[in-house]
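// run 5 | inverse folding | seed 20
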């Protein structure tokens, strides 16, 4: 699924990723942990093609296809999805409209027709029911006045409707209470499957009690410096990142 080799990337001429390599096979959930400033968000932006992030060496492929050669919308069309650390509030735009626009942009990039209104409403109602989201909430302006938990539900709903193949959660757990954390974890776990892979970026082990990763990687100073099973996350929680900061 995702294969990253010797990736170097710079922001404003400052090298942030310094030879990062990572393999995430289809069907697996991998966690990336690391200290603040290690380059975790930079990795997620480089993979999704955010402006201002310059790849200077290395490769990133999705199912063998060069991801870095694609425009951000083309990557989205291939099914790359990045969750927001801080959900957008969009006054005046109902959540339903926002999701429909995102879905149609994805379909357009795939050369598919727009989803019809009845088909979209049916999909939205089905997914909302599955995720226990009050359908009326989706008629309100996106995230405006939503609680933290409601914003997370809305994001999970958006994710479920776009049905990504490769999903990146970048510290989506920051600032969440335990109920919101469960919403995120349930939504993510429900999307696990043999054709999908996920990268869960988190500073804390806590989320990984709910989303059990197949592998855990430590990102320090722009490189993956250690990899292991779920026990590595527990070790980091106990002992901190000092050991790995030196290794970098
Ligand atoms: P993490 O997500 O692991 O906390 P980031 O990827 O956000 O780390 O940041 C990695 C490094 O890149 C930090 O030293 C940060 O200050 C720097 N950085 C991030 N964005 C920018 C930017 N737009 N301009 C300059 N430096 C940046
Ligand atoms: Mg940070
Ligand atoms: Mg970050």
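// decoded
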């Amino acid at each position: 699924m995702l294969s990253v080799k010797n990736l170097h990337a710079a922001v404003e001429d400052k090298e942030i990723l310094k030879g990062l390599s990572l393999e995430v096979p289809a069907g697996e959930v991998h966690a990336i942990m690391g200290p603040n400033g290690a380059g975790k968000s930079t990795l997620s932006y480089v993979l999704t093609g955010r402006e201002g992030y310059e790849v200077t060496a290395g490769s990133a492929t999705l199912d063998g296809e060069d991801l870095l050669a694609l425009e951000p919308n083309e990557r989205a069309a291939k099914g790359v999805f990045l969750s927001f650390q801080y959900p957008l509030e969009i006054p005046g735009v109902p959540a339903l409209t926002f999701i429909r626009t995102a879905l149609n942009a994805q379909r357009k990039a795939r050369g598919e027709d727009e989803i019809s209104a009845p088909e979209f409403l049916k999909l939205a109602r089905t997914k909302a029911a599955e995720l226990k989201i009050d359908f009326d909430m989706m008629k309100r302006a996106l995230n405006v006045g939503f609680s933290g938990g409601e914003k997370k539900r809305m994001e999970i709903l958006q994710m479920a409707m776009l049905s990504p193949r490769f999903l990146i959660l970048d510290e989506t757990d920051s600032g969440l209470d335990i109920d919101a954390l469960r919403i995120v974890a349930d939504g993510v776990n429900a999307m696990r499957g043999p054709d999908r892979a996920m990268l869960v970026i988190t500073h804390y082990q806590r989320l990984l009690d709910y989303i059990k990763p197949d592998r855990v990687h430590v990102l320090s100073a722009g490189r993956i410096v250690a990899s292991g099973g779920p026990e590595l996350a527990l070790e980091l929680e106990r002992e901190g990142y000092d050991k790995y900061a030196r290794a970098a």
